[in-house]
Write a structure and sequence with these properties.
alpha/beta, 5-stranded parallel sheet, 4-stranded antiparallel sheet
Length: about 280
């Protein structure tokens, strides 16, 4: 597979290129955002792109937006900025994952592999579907959720849609943090745990009437999260405006509509477990 590294930090780029080459990838390197975009224009989009932030000539976030608008390459931001706001902006720009410098090359290789596997599943036409629980209806193919009482659908990112699908398919069951990290990113560590919290918070802001006191996407302290479905006779009113999201390239998910009842011995996933 072909990987493009867009990174102005030469020592960092050399270390990444060395590691990825040894892992069997075909690696190219561009020192600036302009050079990287030109490589893509001349040679076509690679399978994956690692984008440094900031770059010598522009913001890495701007480069990610440009790449995402024109291709379906797997995108990972490699940022020297540790601010949560930067990471959130990166996901809004279309990245699939983000790491903070100093980079642990083994972790980055694992993240890149997980991103590429998800892209392969999408390209293979993995099944997608609709899940309905309580007042929510998730359409994984369209990356949107509709909420009873709201006129407009809520746009979701691919990771938000996948996370919501996992929780909805396992209604009233506790999904541990470790299991969610494994199903979504293909690995688990402190970094993916922080990302999980961020995406849960985003879902609450977009879907819950009172995000600070969630009614449906609830935390089980020290364990994980659960989607709580109301009793059939309970009237649900959600009139809070939806927070605009960003419509990104889809991540397929398999699901079947209907109401789940009873306990399940194994959590169900809208996507096959990572290899």
């Amino acid at each position: 597979m072909r990987i493009l590294i867009i990174e102005s930090d030469a020592p960092c780029a050399e270390a990444l290129a060395f590691t990825l080459t040894n892992a069997g990838y075909e690696v190219e390197h561009a020192l600036t955002g302009r050079q990287g975009l030109q490589v893509i224009a001349d040679q076509g989009p690679p399978d994956g792109v690692l984008v440094g932030h900031p770059l010598a000539d522009q913001s890495g976030l701007d480069v990610c937006r440009a790449i995402h608008a024109e291709s379906d390459a797997g995108l990972i931001l490699v940022s020297s900025c540790t601010r949560e706001e930067t990471i959130l902006r990166a996901f809004a720009a279309g990245v699939d994952d983000a790491v903070v410098k100093p980079v642990r090359v083994a972790e980055l290789t694992a993240r890149l592999g997980a991103v590429l596997r998800r892209r392969q599943l999408k390209g293979a036409g993995a099944p997608c579907g609709i899940v309905e629980r309580g007042p929510f209806r998730l359409n994984s193919n369209r990356l949107e959720a509709t909420v009873t009482g709201r006129l407009a659908p809520v746009r979701l990112t691919p990771l938000e849609a996948k996370l919501l699908g996992l929780l909805m398919l396992n209604t009233n069951q506790v999904m541990t943090k470790a299991r969610l990290q494994e199903l979504i990113w293909g690995y688990q560590n402190d970094s993916s745990g922080d990302l999980l919290k961020t995406h849960v918070r985003h879902l609450r802001v977009k879907l819950e009437a009172t995000p600070s006191s969630p009614r449906f996407i609830q935390t089980i302290n020290g364990v994980g999260y659960t989607f709580v479905s109301p009793r059939p006779a309970e009237r649900v009113e959600l009139d809070a405006p939806a927070t605009p999201g960003t419509l990104l390239a889809g991540v397929p998910a398999a699901a079947a509509p209907g109401h789940l009842s009873g306990l399940q011995s194994e959590p169900r996933s809208p996507l096959p477990a990572p290899a």
